Amino acid sequence: MGVRNARNYEIEALISPEKEYVELLKPILVEAKVESWLTRLVQEMKDALGKIFWKYYGDHVTGSKKQYEREKLMKVIKMTQGQILITTA
Predict the structure, then answer these.
(1) What angle do CA 64, 80, 61 make, to 5 degrees?
(2) What sign for the dihedral angle of Cα 15, 10, 34, 7?
(3) DSSP secondary structure string, the chain?
(4) Per-residue pLDDT tens digits for 10-34
(5) pTM to 2 decimals?
(6) What pLDDT, in 10s, does the model give residues 36-55?
């Protein structure tokens, strides 16, 4: 409960117009100071997408120079979080 029975909202995930779903590592509490929670949301988005990218990279590319593994990684990125490379670069 917020002040004077106001509701509290948390952002737990992001969904793109293409229906890409990214769960945040930590929920972001939406509060009156927009700049504050929006700054935290941007950082949390980068952290979540970076974690996804490096997990797939470690699972499918590290230690393997196989073309198949690189293609598999690219397929996963294209089918899921298309913004990973832009956000984590």
Answers:
(1) 5
(2) positive
(3) --GGGPPPEEEEEEE-TT--EEEEEEEEEE-S-HHHHHHHHHHHHHHHHHHHHHHHHHHHTTT---HHHHHHHHHHHHHS-TTHHHHH-
(4) 999 988 887 888 899 999 999 888 9
(5) 0.64
(6) 999 999 899 888 888 887 88
